[in-house]
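Q: What does the assembly look like in three dimensions?
Context provided by user:
Components: two
Sequences:
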Amino acid sequence: MLLPRVIPCLDFRDGRVVKGVKFQNLRDAGDPPELAAEYERQGADELVMLDVSATTHERANQTETVRSVRETLSIPLTVGGGVRTASDAARLLDAGADKTGVNTAAVDRPEIVREIAERFGRQCCVVAIDAARREGDAGGWEVVTRSGTHRTGIDAVEWAARAADLGAGEILLTSWDQDGTRAGYDVGLLGAVSAAVEVPVIASGGAHTAAHLKQALDAGADAVLAASIFHDGEETVGSVKAALAEMGVPVRLPVGAG
Amino acid sequence: MSVDVVHIVRTGTANIASVMAAVRRLDRMPVLTDEPGVVQHCDKLILPGVGAMGATVAELERQQLVGVLRARLAEDRPTLAVCMGHQLLGRESAESPGVPGLGAHDGCAVRFEPGEGRRVPQLGWSRIEAPVGARFFTESGHAYFANSYCFRTVPEGWLGATAEYDGSFVAALERGNVLTCQFHPELSGPFGLALVHRWLELAHNPSPVPENEWRSTRAVAEVEPATPAMERKA
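A: Here is the predicted structure of the complete assembly.
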């Protein structure tokens, strides 16, 4: 039986983790390999790293960052941000990513999903979808791209199903409405997408407590991604997983934690 | 030096960097190779592999590695096969009908059945129970899987560890000096590393061939100590 996965997310740029993470025991909280190793030690089931570089100049160090994280990390690593072609994906996989995330590029040209899946296997191909509630009374969710600046009008649930048909091995689903609110995931969106695809769905956007993670899993998510919940140093992956276990969710506890 | 080298078959697939990093974490030196002589005779060989069975077999055939891999397995030389590598050892896979595997056993890989709350591919951590009498797989624990196909039953002559998904499936097999894992030990944290470590320590080459008969200068030149960069064949 598969256990629900808890996946911390690191945003990085130009070789440094951005959005300060306050772990007491780290020498350098901006150092990607140090943070990655700490998350693994706490019991993270996977790690997602998102390159938030605004320019190609900042992105130049991307593969070096991935390489350095790979040397220390012995759990799966997904890297996204700026993947426009199958060659971009190849570069990240060569450097040590196990999966690559595509977002805007896949909306612009869905064939990239098929290209990555055929070349590297669908388990390497994560399609990241940013979705926002439709304005007005229409209901449903539409895909937004370019860091939320562009509303596409494309139905998010239909796009998820199409991406899975094209070869996505996993859907990383971010609620643009909930992201940054700390008010919990959009469970309606998660339920709708989870029911529409055969592939795993990773919930993202809005988590701040272990109860939020459980809500997402109850709604049908297979994995929960969170960033800010771990940032203030009060919660660790281990403490969140322990809380989930208390709530009856079976999780993989870190070695030594029982 | 040779005791510390672990050769990795250049399958052209996507988990090679992770496998190489895991080997380095175990204080061995990973060396990529596509040379038939090395693949057949080297002391420790890892057959990685993700992606589709048909494409993987085609790539091995193109590199003329199918025959030497069959010989290596028949000679019981220390071999660790991972994920698609694990499935390659069987007779065939429903993923690529008509494509013969390496035939080290009679297993035929079949696809998982999607169902209530059950995704395909299977992506994530699942518990594996260590079988009684194992040489390498002596510890139960959680391991990371990423697969749509699997073997259902343990082939005759092999010892198997099983896990549950849409029913029971084969998580790992061992026989003699050969260990094959459906999961990714290189991505399974301390549990996976400990398993690879036991295989590295305990497996031994039953009929060593003098190194100068199989090691070429080309293989040595391909040592990539800190920054592996694999060649891709598009």
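Follow-up: Chain B has seven helices and twelve strands.
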